[in-house]
Amino acid sequence: MAIGFVIHKAKRKVSPDLVARYRRLPVANISDVMSRIAGTNRLRPMHAGGWLGGPALTVKTRPGDNLMVHKAIDLAQPGDVIVVDAGGILVNAIIGEIMSTLAEKKGVAGFVIDGSIRDAGAIRAGSFPVFAAGVAHRGPYKDGPGEINCAISIDGMIVEPGDLIVADDDGVLCVPHDDAEAVCKLTEAKKATEEKAIQQILAGTSDRRWVDEALQRLGCEFKD
């Protein structure tokens, strides 16, 4: 048995219809309804900007090695997000322009990488979603080991195969597979509430009494 060097079979994933519903929802609103303790703040968009969403195809690799990431591209189905736990080490890039072009051609939704990328200028000029922790000119090795379709940790955020990955300019978030429907409904309601608040501000009818009420409740003193 090859401990730490194995490709598992994918067993479940969030549906394309549910992913489409999330496309209308800001990551910040999703984070709010998940008690503001989920996700990661360290990974940033490396592309020109825009939303990323889809079921996670997870990869755990030795830092600085991308052999299993190459295999993940071969295994990926259209709409999958390849999520790579490279240990957060930034010395060697995990992907660059060639791999991102290959993945985009295959219909992969995008990459989330707890590690570095290179060819940053080319990736930044494009719209193919790539979220990563950093940039490094040093290329990767291709020796393994690693695992595909296993539980991984991205900057402390646990990702299981088939979980929903959502990301935008505010960062990256994983919604557990079994919670994705409920979180979507809560986020839709949250977004509607915020849109109403914006309209009230623009109309000059926003009620700001809650600020003083909160200060009084918390014991704030007003002094001349």
From TrEMBL:
It comes from the Bacteria. Pfam families: RraA-like. This is Putative 4-hydroxy-4-methyl-2-oxoglutarate aldolase. CDD domains: RraA_family (cd16841). It comes from Bradyrhizobium quebecense. InterPro entries: RraA/RraA-like, RraA/RraA-like_sf. Its cofactor is a divalent metal cation. Gene3D superfamilies: Ribonuclease E inhibitor RraA/RraA-like.
